[in-house]
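cache lookup: miss for this entity combination. No prior model stored, computing from scratch. Input as submitted by user K.M.:
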Amino acid sequence: MIDLDVHLPGIARGDAQAFAAWLAGAELPVRRSLRSFAAVVDTEAVLQEALLRIWQVASKVRADGRPNALLRFALRVARNAAIDEVRRARLVPSEAEALERAVAEASDDAEPALPDPLLRRAIERCRERLAGPPKAAFEARLGGGGQPDAALAEGVQMRLNTFLKNVGRARALLLECLQRAGVAVEVG
Amino acid sequence: MTPEERELAIEQVVSAHRERSGRGEVRAAPAWHDLDAEGRRDAFDAAIVARQLEAAADPDSLSATARAVLARIGRSP
């Protein structure tokens, strides 16, 4: 198993490169852990908030003799952030309690998930086959680093709705291409 | 909500862009509030796929979410 704690000393020193390397392996398992909240909180916002908190407090996290102490800590931070949002959203008590029970029963163990080398090679080939507006939209999102879609759409001279449709088309085309190449992507 | 409006709302939620509140907290995407529970779960699933594709296509294995977080802390590889 990959142990992302190799990056912990660097992150604790404030090294953003070390944090980036940790994020590359930690994001997917932390995102997956929020699945039970998907209908009641915006998990993307919760995830980003949790990852920012990890960066702020990582210097206080100590390795505990088991791999991935920081990832296990991140899972707890993300779930607690989601619970805070659930409480703020004022769900009916039965829904909120059901979610909290699900969280209490959830495991803190998760494996890091770096992109599979096969997937990396296949996506390179599939990207080359994308063309026209779907390609322009996908590449804009890829290089956008979380910029607003309106700005990305303007950059590729598309109306916002056209841009959004092309992002979706590009994803579907890439998935089809990867499927033909026999490369699996976790769907949902 | 028409199927087209739903599709567009899901794509907006899949984006890694999120505004921040005055207190610096990451805000939910406005389009997320427009979706019903099923639409929100579909957006979650689509984001799982999108982030894997982005990370696999990125030289540093970073998704748009990771890039957005690194931009927030003011540093990016």
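stored under new cache key. The mean pLDDT of chain A is 90.
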